[in-house]
Structure formats: structure tokens, C-alpha cells
Specification:
Length: about 120
Amino acid sequence: MEGKTYKDKLSERLSSMENPSEWQLKELQQVEEVMVAMRVIIDYGNVLGRPPEGLAEIMVDSIESSHRTLQQSVVTSLVQALIFYSNSRSDDRNAYSVSTCAKIKNFLEDSGLTSRGKYLAPYI
């Protein structure tokens, strides 16, 4: 991982404030919870012989069971994550994934679906 994480940047921003609000402190707690949840997802996929399609299906089942507006928000975040990941450092173990994300990013840019590296999905 290069640079500071989202959590690091948020922590610094909050620590520079004289009196962060309860809501701002809760956001930091929720960031930590999301990071733990992502670790659970990553660890689930870290079983030799477990097909990635199974994890993908579980993820889609979870997304589809949410409110439609939340579905839009989560998919937008996933697409944005792919765009960010396209700039990750790579070696032989993840080069194909980074390259695939770069192709997705280029397709979105060429299709006019991004602006300044941000995915332009509508908020509903």
C-alpha cells in the first residue's frame, strides 16, 4: 500500500480539529468496521480451490437484498475501487488484476463515465 490510507487521512483530519463532533468520531469507527468487513471478505476468498464466482455471487446476493438506492451506492463504490486499484503497485501475483482494472478504467474514461478519476454514476 502506497501513501496514507483513507483511515489515516480521516484520523489526521479529526486529530487536527479542536472538537470533532460525535458524528465525525463515529465515521472513524465505521471506517474501521468496514476495514474489518473487507478483511472477512478477503479471507473468505483466500481458500485454495474456492471459486471466485462463489464469492461474487454472495456479494451480489447481499447487494440485491438492499434498498435500490443503496445498491446504486455500493456498486458505484465497487467501480470506484476498481479505478483506484488500477493505480496499485503490482508484481506477478496481482499484475493481471491491476491490468484488468486499468482496462476497466480506460473503458469508463473512453465512454465518458468518469471525470478526474471519479466514476460518474447518478445519485438517486
